[in-house]
């Protein structure tokens, strides 16, 4: 949660009362469930509630309240707070930086006569690193100065936070580490052990009123009573009304405990009642003691205690049962010993032959054979009369291909005909008959993608594959999402839909059972995943280390304690050096010195300390991590009036007086590479300013890489700003020329600005 991309989310989440509410809920004995308004993707309420419950349990068992970094942040802090009796977590305090000084607006009309001061720069408070109207990022303006660990910018202010395993102090700025490690519990319970499930209360279903009369018992299955002109259904003793308010179901007195059997007896439920049986009478397997104290056969097929598999038929026997294949015999056959055998209708006398006929049995049926024969072309009917045989329909091929059969009395004739086939048929190769067109094989069907074509006589049918269903709107087969259709019924943990089917999966720490639906706990300790000690928990495992070792980042290996490695770079601002039993902080070899706190590096001012190597003619200028030797000399025809200013001594003509600078002034600016652009770094204008003044601002030299730009804010004020980031430390010398138009003449001023871009401060 304290990754760089999520730290604002987590700190903002801690600011809410979710964690405090979870601690209060644990102290009041409430169930620790997830919170509805979860904004960080985790239930902070449930996490703090579970961790507080762990701390209360440690305190109630009389154990020491010790820190356990393996619990992580904020669980470790919540556990210690509840164990030691503290009230709540320390939420980071929002601190406001000092208000900026108001911007000084240049005078439009000035009575001052100091005309020599024609080039000036405003106060440092006026140089904002953002455009007007934007929020100031205090964390960037004061890097490393506001917070000890993390600085988070907010609109109009900022707030501080700590890295994991550290606690924000009451000053809202500093953080202290959590040092000691909690010893593992000898009971083998995890910090968030699941609680025993609560028993669900029994749901009592009340009879529903039925708007009807009780004539012929009305709609009721057992008892009907008219109450307030409406029919109300009830049941006989030993029965309970069902949810429909009409039907009744047997009430299991043995299951509900509504019987009067003694401890030496056991209760046997019956329809509408029950009876008690003494334990002294023992019946053989397959029998049960009835209310008359006699052992009677158990119908395993009715009581559903048989072991017949799906597709088998259960047949009860005395004291046992048999499983036969569930067969449905066709007409003319009967089931004997699990097989369908032919019924001899003639032998059993169940045929329908007349007096003048003799019954002849066939497989699955019979036929009646006449005792006297008819002439060829005739057939005897059930009454014994000879009727004409329609050879055109009775014979398989009465005529040759291409001829039509015409029935006659006692015979038939063949007549050639023209073949006309209907839709879905075409003539055979010899043109003698119409044969079905297989649209599926020839590919002339119109079944959509994902559909299966089935040929039919004269037509075809489009069906969806198994696991798909037809969508009338799109007229296509769409996949059936079994996981949505049967939520929670197919898989114990997670259900994943697949094209035409579904697949079950288990959470981490579980494996799929043999049935492919349920999940079983995996004992990871059997595979020795830990380098030292391993404790299996439900759905996971926990590695422990012996004294003198700590658990590595992978959660499996144990390694020696190294303060520099564990600190993740938060002990020292530059570099941490591990020493036996402790650590030391180091700074860069040049340009920095260690502060009194032993962990922060401070820039050395070589110019003040006199450790620079600048000559007597040069000026030393301190920058972050170093210094620069600057030589300020005036060009010919100029004289030096101060350390940073040159003035022109004379000019030869009017044109020369307007084009050459009347004054050259040197400036030094120092910024870091992480400055936010665009950033105003220099303000320039005439001092004093008069009504009618107008300036022209130009960067004449030093901006070859186009990092900087000049802009006029109003007729008498302009600014120089950084317009694109400078990613590496670099020195610049800009020549910024200002031409002042005043009372019909131009006056030129030149500002030579040294700009030093240094690396980030430590």
What does the secondary structure layout of this molecule look like, with pairings?
Elements lengths: L6 H9 L2 H10 L16 H17 L14 H10 L9 E2 L42 H4 L8 E5 L2 E5 L4 E3 L6 E3 L45 E5 L2 E5 L4 E3 L6 E3 L2 H4 L8 E6 L2 E6 L8 E3 L5 E3 L2 H4 L8 E6 L2 E6 L7 E4 L2 E4 L2 H4 L8 E6 L2 E6 L7 E3 L5 E3 L2 H4 L8 E6 L2 E6 L8 E3 L6 E3 L2 H4 L8 E6 L2 E6 L3 E4 L4 E4 L2 H4 L8 E5 L2 E5 L4 E3 L6 E3 L11 E5 L2 E5 L5 E2 L6 E2 L3 H4 L8 E5 L2 E5 L5 E3 L6 E3 L2 H4 L9 E5 L2 E5 L7 E5 L2 E4 L5 H6 L1 E12 L6 E6 L9 E8 L6 E7 L2 E6 L7 E13 L2 E14 L4
Parallel strand pairs: 46-52
Antiparallel strand pairs: 1-3, 2-3, 4-5, 6-7, 8-9, 10-11, 12-13, 14-15, 16-17, 18-19, 20-21, 22-23, 24-25, 26-27, 28-29, 30-31, 32-33, 34-35, 36-37, 38-39, 40-41, 42-43, 44-45, 45-46, 47-50, 48-51, 49-50, 51-52
Helix pairs in contact: 2-3, 3-4
Can you count the helices? 14
Report strand %.
25-35%
Which sequence of strands runs across the widest sheet? 44-45-46-52-51-48
Residue share in helix: 10-25%
Oligomer state equals: single chain
Structural class: mainly beta
Please tell me how large the radius of gyration is. 50 Å
Poorly predicted runs of 5 or more residues: 1-16, 87-134, 180-212
- Largest beta-sheet characterization: 6 strands, mixed
Shape: elongated
Gap from first CA to last CA: 25 Å
Please tell me the overall pLDDT.
78
E-strand count: 52
């Amino acid at each position: 949660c304290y990754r760089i991309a999520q730290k604002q989310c987590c700190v903002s989440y801690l600011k809410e009362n979710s964690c405090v509410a979870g601690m209060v809920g644990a102290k009041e004995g409430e169930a620790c469930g997830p919170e509805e308004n979860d904004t960080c993707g985790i239930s902070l309420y449930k996490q703090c509630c579970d961790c507080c419950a762990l701390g209360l349990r440690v305190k109630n068992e009389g154990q020491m309240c010790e820190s356990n970094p393996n619990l992580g942040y904020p669980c470790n802090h919540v556990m210690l707070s509840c164990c030691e009796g503290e009230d709540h977590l320390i939420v980071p305090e929002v601190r406001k930086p000092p208000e900026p000084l108001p911007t000084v607006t240049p005078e439009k009309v000035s009575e001052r006569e100091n005309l020599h001061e024609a080039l000036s720069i405003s106060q440092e408070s006026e140089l904002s690193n953002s455009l007007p109207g934007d929020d100031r990022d205090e964390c960037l303006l004061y890097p490393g100065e506001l917070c000890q660990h993390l600085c988070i910018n907010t609109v109009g202010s900022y707030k501080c936070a700590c890295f994991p395993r550290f606690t924000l102090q009451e000053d809202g700025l500093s953080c202290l580490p959590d040092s000691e490690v909690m010893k593992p519990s000898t009971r083998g319970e995890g910090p968030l052990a699941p609680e025993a499930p609560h028993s669900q209360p029994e749901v009592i279903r009340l009879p529903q009123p039925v708007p009807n009369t009780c004539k012929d018992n009305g709609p009721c299955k057992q008892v009907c009573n008219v109450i307030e002109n409406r029919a109300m259904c009830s049941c006989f003793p030993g029965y309970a009304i069902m949810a429909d308010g009409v039907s009744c179901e047997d009430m299991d007195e043995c299951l509900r405990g509504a019987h009067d059997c003694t401890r030496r007896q056991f209760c046997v439920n019956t329809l509408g009642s029950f009876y008690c049986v003494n334990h002294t009478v023992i019946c053989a397997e397959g029998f049960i003691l009835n209310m008359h104290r006699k052992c009677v056969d158990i119908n395993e097929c009715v009581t559903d205690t048989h072991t017949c598999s799906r597709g088998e038929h259960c047949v009860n026997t005395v004291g046992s049962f048999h499983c036969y294949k569930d067969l449905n015999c066709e007409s003319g056959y009967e089931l004997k010993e699990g097989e369908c055998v032919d019924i001899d209708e003639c032998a059993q006398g169940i045929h329908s032959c007349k007096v003048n006929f003799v019954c002849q049995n066939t497989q699955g049926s019979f036929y009646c054979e006449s005792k006297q024969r008819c002439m060829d072309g005739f057939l005897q009917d059930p009454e014994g009369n000879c009727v004409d045989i329609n050879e055109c329909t009775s014979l398989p091929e009465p005529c040759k291909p291409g001829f039509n059969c015409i029935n006659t009395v006692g015979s038939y004739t063949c007549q050639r005909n023209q073949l006309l086939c209907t839709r879905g048929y075409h003539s055979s190769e010899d043109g003698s008959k119409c044969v079905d067109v297989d649209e599926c094989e020839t590919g002339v069907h119109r079944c959509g993608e994902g559909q299966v074509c089935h040929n039919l006589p004269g037509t075809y049918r489009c069906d969806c594959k198994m696991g798909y269903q037809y969508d009338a709107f799109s007229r296509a087969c769409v996949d059936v999402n079994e996981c949505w259709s049967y939520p929670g019924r197919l898989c114990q943990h997670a259900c994943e839909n697949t094209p035409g089917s579904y697949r079950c999966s288990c959470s981490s720490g579980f494996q799929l059972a043999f049935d492919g639906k349920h999940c079983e706990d995996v004992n990871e300790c059997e595979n020795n995943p830990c380098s030292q000690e391993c404790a299996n928990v439900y759905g996971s495992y926990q590695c422990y280390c012996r004294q003198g070792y700590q658990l590595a980042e992978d959660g499996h290996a144990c390694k020696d304690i190294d303060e520099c490695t564990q600190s993740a770079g938060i002990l020292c601002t530059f570099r941490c050096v591990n020493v036996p039993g402790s650590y030391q902080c180091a700074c860069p070899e040049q340009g920095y010195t260690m502060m009194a706190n032993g962990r922060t590096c401070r820039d050395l001012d070589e110019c003040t300390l006199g450790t620079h190597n600048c000559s007597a003619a040069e000026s030393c200028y301190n920058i972050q991590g170093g210094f620069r030797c600057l030589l300020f000399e005036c060009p010919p025809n100029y004289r030096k009036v101060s350390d940073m200013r040159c003035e022109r001594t004379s000019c030869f003509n009017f044109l020369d007086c307007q084009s050459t600078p009347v004054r050259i002034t040197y400036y030094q600016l120092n910024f870091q590479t992480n400055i936010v652009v665009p950033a105003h770094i220099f303000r320039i204008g005439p001092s004093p300013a008069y009504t009618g003044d107008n300036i022209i601002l130009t960067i004449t030299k030093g901006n070859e890489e186009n990092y900087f730009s000049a802009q006029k804010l109003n007729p008498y004020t302009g600014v120089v700003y950084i317009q694109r980031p400078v990613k590496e430390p670099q020195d610049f010398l800009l020549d910024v020329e200002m031409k002042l138009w005043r009372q019909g003449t131009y006056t030129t001023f030149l500002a030579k600005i040294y700009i030093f871009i240094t690396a980030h401060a430590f």
